[in-house]
Design a protein that fits this description.
Elements: E1 5-21, E2 24-38, E3 41-47, H1 60-76, H2 86-90, H3 97-115, H4 119-123, E4 129-131, E5 133-136, H5 142-155, E6 159-163, H6 170-179, E7 185-188, H7 198-202, E8 212-213, H8 222-230, E9 235-237, H9 244-252, E10 258-261, H10 263-266, H11 269-281, E11 286-288, H12 295-305, E12 328-329, E13 339-341, E14 351-352, H13 354-360, E15 361-367
Parallel strand pairs: 5-6, 6-7, 7-8, 8-9, 9-10, 10-11
Antiparallel strand pairs: 1-2, 1-15, 2-3, 4-13, 12-14
Helix pairs in contact: 1-3, 9-11
This protein binds 2-succinylbenzoate and magnesium ion.
Length: 373
């Protein structure tokens, strides 16, 4: 593939309601979108780095800088045959996985269009529909929390994930279980607990949760493995899994029994597929996490979720849960049975609304290959 130019842009997009986790609240997103132009086509990528370095050490600003100074020039002067060649090209840059992922995924997006195959198929997926869950943020009151659960169940979602933290956990699970004893329920602590909270975390077993996501430190395997020994509820790791080797270590140490895969967190589609395959070979189910993506990232998550071992409902939900107006067309919709149909048309299967993006853009930069002598 000939790459002609890369464009970075920042857009601002307010969430329809604030999203609160144990590490903070997001009201408006600053989103870095990348456009990779070549072969007369445009591949898009959605960088999932946050406004602050709270979920991971990257932010939209570090991603911008490293794309502008390092990754962009590397990609702009390359002629990659395939999206799978991008990680090798970026290898000398340590870390910055969310920045790498946005560019790599844009190349896969472009490649799927060029080859006229659905992105899901290019990634090796075969599911025609994917099962969807929702991640519900910490609410200002228990009453509001129950109302949110009720709304999402009515919309058909197959699994409810509650964000939790010390002081906002068992009392919430109790209230939800009281009203809905049978639903598939999980929780996500985003590293809010410590090993000394083990006795408390053991109480979570009472609520028959499908999993407890990332209870301890974002960089830990060992203490999660100690905690898992005490819990009946499976631990799912999110933040801790940066790549395939991490997945192997976590599985080997029994730090978790389920893995959340996010493209951005592991550095792009190639590594996401590698984590998926490693888990599959060891009988560990995976599901696709979310990072409050726009429709572009969401369409990529749908394609990834079509791989076989994505056997648990993901945090891939409808556009309207996040945005008044999404930047793709049609918007992502979820059926009354809590499923999304995987597009079977070439590329990502959703058009990008470039006029809307242009209006939302607050900064833009072009990266081209350096002229060769
Ligand atoms: O830990 O899964 C997480 C959002 C931002 C950062 C981290 C997480 C989340 C979510 C939201 O849970 C998932 C989504 O619906 O996009
Ligand atoms: Mg999580």
């Amino acid at each position: 593939m000939r790459i002609d130019a890369i464009y970075l842009r920042e857009i601002r997009l307010p969430l329809v309601q604030p999203f609160q986790t144990s590490f903070g609240t997001t009201t408006e997103r600053r989103i870095l979108l990348v456009e990779v132009r070549g072969e007369g086509l445009v591949g898009w990528g959605d960088c999932v780095a946050g406004e602050h370095p709270y979920f991971s050490d990257e932010t939209i600003d570090t991603a911008w800088l490293v794309m502008q100074q390092e990754l962009g020039p590397l990609l702009a002067s390359a002629e990659p045959e395939h999206g799978g060649k991008i990680p090798g090209m970026f290898r000398q840059v340590r870390g910055h996985r969310m920045a790498k992922a946005a560019l790599e995924n844009a190349v896969w997006d472009l490649e799927a269009q060029m080859k006229r195959v659905p992105l899901a198929m290019l990634l090796g997926g075969s599911r025609e529909v994917i099962d969807c869950g929702v991640s519900i943020g910490i609410q200002p009151s228990l009453e509001k929390q129950l109302a949110e659960v009720e709304k999402e169940l009515a919309a058909g979602y197959q699994r409810i994930k509650l964000k939790c933290k010390p002081g906002w956990d068992v009392k919430v699970f109790e209230a939800v279980r009281d009203r809905w004893p049978e639903i598939t329920l999980s929780c996500d602590a985003n590293s809010a607990y410590r090993l000394k909270d083990s006795d408390h975390l053991v109480n979570f077993d009472e609520f028959s949760l499908l999993m407890i996501e990332q209870p301890l430190w974002a960089d830990d395997f060992y203490f999660h493995s100690m905690l898992q020994k005490r819990l009946e509820t499976p631990i799912c790791l999110d933040e801790s899994i940066r790549n395939r080797r991490d997945a192997l270590a976590a599985i080997e140490m029994e730090s978790c029994r389920i893995i959340n895969i996010k493209c951005g967190r592991v550095g792009g589609f190639s590594e996401a597929i590698a984590v998926h395959n490693a888990a599959q070979e060891r009988g560990v189910p995976v599901w696709c996490g979310g990072m409050l993506e726009t429709g572009i990232g969401r369409s990529h998550n749908i394609a990834l979720s079509s791989l076989d071992n994505f056997s648990l409902p993901g945090d891939v939900s409808a556009s309207k849960r996040y945005w008044k107006e999404d930047i793709i067309e049609p918007e992502v919709e979820v059926s009354p049975t809590g499923q999304i149909t995987v597009p079977d048309t070439p590329g990502r299967g959703f058009e990008v609304r470039t006029d809307l993006i242009e209006r939302l853009t607050v900064r833009k930069e072009e990266i081209r290959a350096m002229a060769m002598a």
